[in-house]
Structure formats: structure tokens, C-alpha cells
Write a structure and sequence with these properties.
Radius of gyration: 16 Å
Strand order of the largest sheet: 3-4-8-7
CATH architecture: 3-Layer(aba) Sandwich
Number of domains: 1
Distance between the termini: 25 Å
Oligomer: single chain
CATH superfamily: LmbE-like
Helix content: 25-40%
Order of helices and strands: EHEHEHEEEEHHE
Strand content: 15-25%
Number of helices: 5
Shape: globular
Number of strands: 8
Largest sheet: 4 strands, mixed
CATH class: Alpha Beta
Length: about 180
């Protein structure tokens, strides 16, 4: 949202066939003036681990095969304690970048931690990059969560909308170690 002239492409690996979530994702893309696509990986509440090759293939099937300036992904250690699908996606994206199957000048992964569920996720103080959001940008983000997606103001999603965004930034694939274990996240 801070860079509206950039051409963003957002990949969501699950819930393409979800009659509730899919239209909300498409509306969010429209609101953000972005392009994007959804896949249909299992994202059920049980979060059974998926085959890493299947996650990588799902990404390759959805992501246009071009050179990107920047790829932003989930942290392979998770943004909060145990969201297996986010961890799998972060690991898969990094592996694809390291093996040259996706190409980007930089890769960023989210850098949040929750003290092993002691508190809501917050920026990891050791993150490579932290950026406070302006009130206007934060409100837009919050409104996408609460109005577009319909999460209640008391929901986990609404309560964890960060006022500061934090990332681990990498400019070369060899800089990333896997699995990454940052700050208790």
C-alpha cells in the first residue's frame, strides 16, 4: 500500500474453492489494485503437514515465471507459533529461490514473533528491516481485514494487524539458512 505504483502479484496457495474466502481475496486484490491468483492446497484446521514437493509445485503452477524485483513470503519459522502451512510456504519459496526455480533480486520473509504464544505477534526486534506504518496505511490494512474479509474487531486477525511491519531481507539465496529459527516465532 505504501508503493501503489509498483505492480504487485499476490499468490494465495489455498482456498480457491472456498465460497467465502475466494471472493474476499479477489475483492482485496481489486481494492489494492493488484493482480493475483489462488490455489487450492489443503488449509484445514488440522494443518497436517504437506509434501514439500507438492507445496513447491503449487507455487510454480501459480507464480508467473518471470524475474521479480522482490518476493515477500512467510517466515519458515512462522510469524506466530505454529501455523504449519505458513512455515511450509516460507520454506518452499526460499528453496525455490535458492535452487533458481524462481528468480528475484531480493527475498523478504516476515519477521514477527509471539514469545511462544505469550503475547500477540509483534515485530522481531532483531529483524533486518522494520517500518512503522502511517495511520492511513494501517487503517487501510485494518479495513481489509475487518471489512473486506469480515473479521470481527475482537478477532485474532484484527488484533494482530501490525503497526510496524518487519522483515528478514536477503539479497542473495546463499544468505538464507533453512530452517530459520528467529526470536521465538
Amino acid at each position: 500500500m505504501s508503493h501503489p505504483l509498483v505492480s504487485w502479484f499476490i499468490v494465495c496457495l489455498s482456498r480457491r474453492d472456498d465460497p467465502d474466502r475466494a471472493p474476499k481475496f479477489m475483492k482485496a486484490l481489486k481494492d489494492l489494485k493488484c493482480e493475483g491468483i489462488m490455489g487450492n492446497l489443503d488449509d484445514g484446521p488440522d494443518q497436517h503437514p504437506l509434501d514439500p514437493d507438492a507445496v513447491e509445485q503449487a507455487i510454480l503452477d501459480l507464480l508467473p515465471p518471470i524475474q521479480y524485483d522482490l518476493i515477500i513470503t512467510h517466515n519458515p519459522a512462522g510469524e506466530y507459533t505454529r501455523h504449519i502451512r505458513h512455515e511450509e510456504v516460507g520454506k518452499a519459496v526460499i528453496n525455490l529461490w535458492q535452487t533458481g526455480k524462481i528468480s528475484s533480486g531480493e527475498l523478504w520473509s516476515f519477521a514477527y514473533e509471539d514469545g511462544n504464544k505469550e503475547y500477540y505477534p509483534r515485530p522481531d526486534e532483531n529483524a533486518t528491516f522494520q517500518r512503522p506504518l502511517s495511520k492511513k496505511i494501517w487503517l487501510r490494512k485494518y479495513n481489509i481485514l475487518t471489512q473486506t474479509y469480515g473479521f470481527e474487531k475482537s478477532s485474532f486477525e484484527a488484533k494482530t494487524a501490525p503497526l510496524t511491519e518487519a522483515f528478514w531481507k536477503y539479497t542473495a539465496p546463499f544468505e538464507v539458512e533453512q530452517p530459520v529459527n528467529y526470536g521465538g516465532g
